[in-house]
Predict the 3D structure of the following.
Amino acid sequence: MDQSAVLEISREVFIVILKSGGPIMAAGLVIGLAIAIFQTLTSIQEMTLTFVPKIIFIFGAVIVFMPFMMTTIIEFAQSLYDRIIALG
């Protein structure tokens, strides 16, 4: 395995990480921003108001995006297995 193959696999790893984690982090960002705007407009500074909706919304996003995330990870794993077979 040469240096270019290692760099290509590393690049693919980062793309898979972004594709599988990105939707969840984006959902957390959107709900966090909405809660911050709500707290600013109403002057409510309750700590549980920040965490509970975020947790619920992120769990919902995980359930919604799980098929996409699993497909991405499985496709990457299969491509790695194919490369391992090609080496031997």
Summary: The radius of gyration is 19 Å.
